[in-house]
Amino acid sequence: MTFSISLHTSSGKTLGIAELSGKIDAKNKSEFQTSFDLWLKQTSFLVFDCSKLDFIDSSGLGALVSCLRKAIEHGGDVKLANLSSKVSMVFELTKVNKLFSIFADTESAKLSF
Amino acid sequence: MKALIIIKEQDYSWIREVLPHVHPLLVPICNKPFAEFLIDFSILAGCEAIRFVSDGPLSDVEHYCDDGSRWGIAVSYSSIQIADELQQVIKKNQRYCSDGKIIVISGFIFIHYNKQKDYKKLFAALPEGEILNCICGSLSLSGAPLDGQKAIVSDVALSLTGLNSIDVYYRLSMEVLGYASSPYVLPGYSNEAYCSIGSNVVITKGAEIIKPVIIGNNVQILAGSVIGPDAVIGNNVIVDRDSTVSASIVMDNTYIGEHLAVTNRIATENILIEPESGASMAMEDPHLLTGIKKIGSAETIVQSLVHGLMALILISLQLIPFLLLLPILTMQGKWKWYKNTSYTTVSGKTLKLTTATLERNGLISTLAGALSLDRLPLLFRVLSGQLAIIGGGAVVANSNTVADLSSAPSSNRACVFSYAEAEDWPLTGGDSAIVERYYAVHGNPFQDIIMTVKALFNRILEKNTP
């Protein structure tokens, strides 16, 4: 499980593209949230590239929603891109897909800001 | 007339990968096993005997169908080799096929028939040969037509659907569900069109059922849930609060967690399947989707015994410290008794409980709290069977909590320690309800031992001390 971020400047905004890989579950959600808090200091406009995200459970979903809430509190947003079919199923099942803007690819997500 | 049903393992092997919890020939279509549809059709066609033939294992089918006496028909079973073609199969079952006409159903196919139609005369009059075929199999007849009978095919509807993918299975189930007056005999009580409900179904206040829907036996649909339209709910299913199931099939022994939306899916135990693409995901998170097993009376007795034994052990350990420390704590004003009335179970019966609160400041009171001495009075209620040692937490009876009670799982019992205490979740608020509801459904006696020990340890460490 790894989380990494790269910063891009677009339309005058600094966007963070965070690549999530592996899984986000009860065991590592604290680590993920700690990483997010560090990213938030750099930018509140973030795209989570989930192309390598294999698994997420209810704790992981809670962590993602928490990230969204924090980003909004800082005047920004968190958008998701490249969800795999399995991760999409979890999002649809839990109705979390209604909370996030979800895009097929990272570029579309970047352009939406 | 007799029926010979030949289904090779290669015909149904795809189902084993997608729906591993059920034998392919017993896969339910609107809660009726596939094999039963074939049996029903054979009976309608005038068959007095049916033989299932396969190169795969048939023990589950044999266990379910037995000798066919349930349907007033003789059911038998036979094995073949993978390479055996139809003629070889008939030859191997020559003795069975020797007298009279034989309807041969070959392949993993669903026969669309109508229980109101007369197929006896049709099949009696048809000549030998293939009647219908599809991509996955065929329906044919061997043997000469009966003398004097003329085939009348025109006004008797029959068609075949090859069951070769999960998408086909899903669409077939939705089609069978969608009949106002079903052409098939389906399980459940059906007083109105598009709706069939099994026995021992609990639909709590606030749940909504939208037709067409079929619900199996031993089903709990908790408050706020919406079932349908186009929902098939299997047997031994729990749909937890505020979840929706529409255009979906929830198969037997499945738990659907709270606040979920199951739409255009097949849920079987912990596996969620998207029929159109065939994609499936095994949910590792049991709070979302998981399999459940029905607790029989034997397990309930075992659970009571285990709880009683744990209570006895705790009483024997706590009694002496309790007798020594109680007078001191009472004098210090840190120990207070109070009485309340709590619900014992979701049935609404109440119980007057005398419980204690303990202020944990100071050496003696901290020691008393660590030893959970404030829970000792309740342990005697466990011995008498009125409380569980660990459970979903005692619900104080008042006008506010009666609504919560009606939405709780039926296995919820008032208790000494709560699952939330054991799992170190906040004791108040919705979070505790999630974990308590989960274990109320999924707990077993030996897990209760572990949970009780965890709760005791958490109290020693002063976690979540109320």
Task: Describe what you observe in this structure.
The complex is a heterodimer of chains A (113) and B (466). By secondary structure, chain A is α/β, with parallel strands linked by helices. Chain A has one domain (2-111): STAS domain (Transcription Regulator spoIIAA), CATH 3.30.750. Chain A contains 4 helices and 5 strands, in the order E-E-H-E-H-E-H-E-H. Chain A has helices at residues 29-42, 58-73, 85-94, 106-111, and strands at residues 2-10, 13-24, 45-56, 77-81, 101-103. In chain A, helix 3 links the parallel strand 4 and strand 5. Chain A starts with a strand and ends with a helix. The model of chain A has no long low-confidence stretch (mean pLDDT 88). Chain B has 466 residues and is of the alpha/beta class. Chain B folds into 3 domains: 2-165, Spore Coat Polysaccharide Biosynthesis Protein SpsA, Chain A (Alpha-Beta Complex), CATH 3.90.550; 189-291, UDP N-Acetylglucosamine Acyltransferase, domain 1; 297-460, no CATH class. Helices cover 32% and strands 27% of the residues of chain B. Chain B is built from 14 helices and 32 strands. In chain B, the strands form 8 sheets. An 8-stranded mixed β-sheet of chain B has the order 11-12-15-18-21-24-25-26, covered by helices on one side. Chain B has a 6-stranded mixed β-sheet with strand order 5-4-1-6-9-8, with helices on one face. The longest helix of chain B is centred in the last third of the chain and has 36 residues, at 297-332. Chain B starts with a strand and ends in a 6-residue tail after the last helix. The model of chain B has no long low-confidence stretch (mean pLDDT 84). The A-B interface holds A 25, 55, 57-59, 85-86, 89-90, 92-95 and B 259-263, 265, 272, 274, 277, 279, 281, 283-285, 287-289.
What's the short story on this structure?
Chain A is an alpha/beta fold. Helices cover 41% and strands 36% of the residues of chain A.
